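To illustrate the input format used throughout this study, we show a single complete record. The first block contains the structure-token representation of the backbone; no residue identities are included at this stage. The design step must infer an amino acid for every position from geometry alone.
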């Protein structure tokens, strides 16, 4: 990895030298993107300093993040969350990145998170830590983030060093455009960044890069035009670097974080990429695999009823005589791909025919597209139909996902089926009742799944069985709903937590 980067840097030096040699005769001509890129690198401290940046650590960040997909109603505006104690570590030479932060919402939700894109040998793997839990090992594409970027891999691609070095390789004949950015005149040009085209805004006064834009592919939003605005440049070891980044996607606010400290080539900071000893075996298995992987176990909890337990988000699987039904496809597409692969192995000849979604929060529908790509019918409450249709029809091209590839090639794409109040999946003696419950303070409406043969209820985010969780408004509302519906529930399984007796909920809530 390092020799390839060093060879690329030598090529960049030659490009810069060529541009420099022609600058005298080119000054009278309209500036090209390459010329502006050379000036930007000079303003940053010169090519030798910029190219010597092998790692970049941005620390003590604070700001906001939108597009979390956590509104109570699907049609409501998604409120901003606070990001604090943000640290982003970019190993530019080694192709690794880490996001560490605490997220806080107005509803009182607080979570410390760390998502790490690292390497086991020459293969990329992911490490994820939530709160005080041990690190979970997964494939690189399985990481989930609520940080400044939606994955560490995106942070690695969208940084000023990478963009500046890509810009000096722009088409030498392309003349930059005159544009405005936040009401001020700027120059705009385009450059190739690996397999995508990126637009770059140059400040004509400071000559620094003011912003860049391209198409990002978000797990839920799909392909969206994204703009990254850079501010608060300051000198770090002789290199001018931005200390604030503001991101908009689809024309709306996405994230805005200011870092009070930035360091270059800080060797000790790269320790974040070390794989813990206790996770080394799992990392070796993930690195040796040839597909996406997210940690997942399938446990029988009743006859033909199974609990699919992930790192933090879970699903329910019910086996029918000729097919399977899944309740919830949470977190990431990689988790759903892992589940579909596991089910195909354990239940040969039984396809996943139905997938029921409890509510359209991003962390509880992140894997829906992967299950649709397996041909499943997606069942949603009528009030969630628009949000789910937008998820399923969005293009995902940078990179493409299974559903987008299937749609282009005529493969499986599943379909969407909305229902009111209640619907039932049944075959033989097995059935699942899906109940639409109104008035939940967490998501309104929200769907509960009841399996009569097992007297089992599955729900997400209202109560976490087996965790010792106490009474909350959502838990009290859950208990009221079960009693109003007259369900004979004896076992409670959660999209979080685990599986436990229903009395656990009754004792926690008391008399609602």
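Output of the design step:
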């Amino acid at each position: 990895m390092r020799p390839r980067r060093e060879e690329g840097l030598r090529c960049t030096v030659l490009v810069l030298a060529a541009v420099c040699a022609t600058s005298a005769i080119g000054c009278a001509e309209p500036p090209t993107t390459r010329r502006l890129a050379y000036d930007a690198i000079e303003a940053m401290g010169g090519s030798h300093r910029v190219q010597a940046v092998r790692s970049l650590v941005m620390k003590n960040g604070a700001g906001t993040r939108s597009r979390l997909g956590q509104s109570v109603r699907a049609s409501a505006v998604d409120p901003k969350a606070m990001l604090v104690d943000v640290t982003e570590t970019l190993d530019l030479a080694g192709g690794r990145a880490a996001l560490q932060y605490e997220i806080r919402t107005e509803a009182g939700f607080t979570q410390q998170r760390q998502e790490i894109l690292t390497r086991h040998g020459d293969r990329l793997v992911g490490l994820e830590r939530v709160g005080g839990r041990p690190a979970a090992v997964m494939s690189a594409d399985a990481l989930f983030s609520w940080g400044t970027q939606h994955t560490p891999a995106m942070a690695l691609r969208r940084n000023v060093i990478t963009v500046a070095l890509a810009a000096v390789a722009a088409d030498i004949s392309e003349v930059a455009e005159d544009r405005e950015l936040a009401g001020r005149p700027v120059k705009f040009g385009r450059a190739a960044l690996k397999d995508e085209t990126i637009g770059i805004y140059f400040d004509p006064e400071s000559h620094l890069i003011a912003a860049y834009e391209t198409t990002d592919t978000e797990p839920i939003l799909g392909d969206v035009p994204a703009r990254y605005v850079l501010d608060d440049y300051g000198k770090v070891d002789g290199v001018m670097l931005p200390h604030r980044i503001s991101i908009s996607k689809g024309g709306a606010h996405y994230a805005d974080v200011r870092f009070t400290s930035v360091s270059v080539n800080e060797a000790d900071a790269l320790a974040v990429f070390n794989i813990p000893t206790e996770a080394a075996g799992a990392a070796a298995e993930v690195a040796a695999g040839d597909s996406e992987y997210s940690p997942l176990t399938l446990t029988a909890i009743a006859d033909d009823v199974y609990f699919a337990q992930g790192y933090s988000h879970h699903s329910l699987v019910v086996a029918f005589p000729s097919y399977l039904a899944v309740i919830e496809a949470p977190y990431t597409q990689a988790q759903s791909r892992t589940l579909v692969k596991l089910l195909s192995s354990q239940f040969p000849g039984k396809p996943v025919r139905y997938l029921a979604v409890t509510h359209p929060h991003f962390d509880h529908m992140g894997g829906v597209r992967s299950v649709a790509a397996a041909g499943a019918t997606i069942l949603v409450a009528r009030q969630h139909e628009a949000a789910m249709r937008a998820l399923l029809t969005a293009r995902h091209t940078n990179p493409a996902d299974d559903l987008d590839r299937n749609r282009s090639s005529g493969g499986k794409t599943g379909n969407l089926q909305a229902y009111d109040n209640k619907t039932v999946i049944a075959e033989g003696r097995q059935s699942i009742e899906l109940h639409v419950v109104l008035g939940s303070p967490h998501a309104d409406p929200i769907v509960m799944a009841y399996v009569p043969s097992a007297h089992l209820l599955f729900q997400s985010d209202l109560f976490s069985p087996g965790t010792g969780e106490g009474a909350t408004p959502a838990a009290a509302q859950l208990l009221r709903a079960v009693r109003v519906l007259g369900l004979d529930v004896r076992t409670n399984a959660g999209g979080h937590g685990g599986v436990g007796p229903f009395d656990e909920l009754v004792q926690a809530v008391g008399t609602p």
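Structural context for interpreting the output: The first helix runs from residue 2 to 26. Residues 291-509 form a domain with the Metallo-beta-lactamase; Chain A fold (CATH 3.60.15.10).
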